[in-house]
Amino acid sequence: MSEVVVKSLKNLQNEVSYGAGQTLLIDEPVGAGGDGLGPDPYTLLLAALGGCISMTLTLYARRKAWPLSGVEVRLRIERVHAKDCLECERSAEGFVHRIERHVTVKGDLTDEQRARLQEIAHKCPVHKTLTSEIVISEMER
User: Fold this and answer.
1) Distances (CA, A) of 130 to 24, 56, 105
2) Could you say which of 3, 109, 114, 124 would form a disulfide bridge with 52 (CB–CB 3.0 to 4.6 Å)?
3) pLDDT string in tens for the chain (141-residue length)
4) What does the alpha-carbon distance between residue 71 and residue 92 come to, in Å, rounded to a whole number?
């Protein structure tokens, strides 16, 4: 299990430590009261999903020896009323977070290979995590 440690610095800046001494800075945009020195938490969430999709497709194509030369994943998130969300199954009231994505695969691929890669894009581990029930509990120190 991987672990991430987040420590507040100044204003809304936070240092994220992970792996073997690796760090990154997260912040909020200036318009939201931050200093704009790093990605905000929702940007990181979308980056995690996009990165997972890209890596999953790359590994799948590599295993199949398909000529995939690149993947581009565009993502955006919005908060919508549940009653306005046609795809929503669990929530009927309040708000839901809706993520839109567009996956472009590059390379000399057949139509069948492209279609299969689009199917596989929905099966990356982060996608599965975000679409399943998530429990956040206190951890022992």
Assistant:
1) 23, 16, 22
2) 124
3) 689 999 999 999 999 999 999 999 999 999 999 999 999 999 999 999 999 999 999 999 999 999 999 999 999 998 776 555 555 565 556 677 889 999 999 999 999 999 999 999 999 999 999 988 888 899 887
4) 35
Q: Could you tell me the sign of the dihedral formed by the alpha carbons of 65, 67, 68, 70, in that order?
A: positive
How distant, in Å, are the alpha carbons of 34, 99, 115 from that of 127? 29, 11, 18
33 in the Ramachandran plot: left (φ > 0), alpha (ψ -120 to 50) or beta? left
Domain boundaries, the chain: 1-39, 40-136
Instruction: Report whether 80 contacts 118 (CB < 8 A).
Output: no
Q: Of 63, 46, 77, which is closest to residue 116 (Cα–Cα)?
A: 63
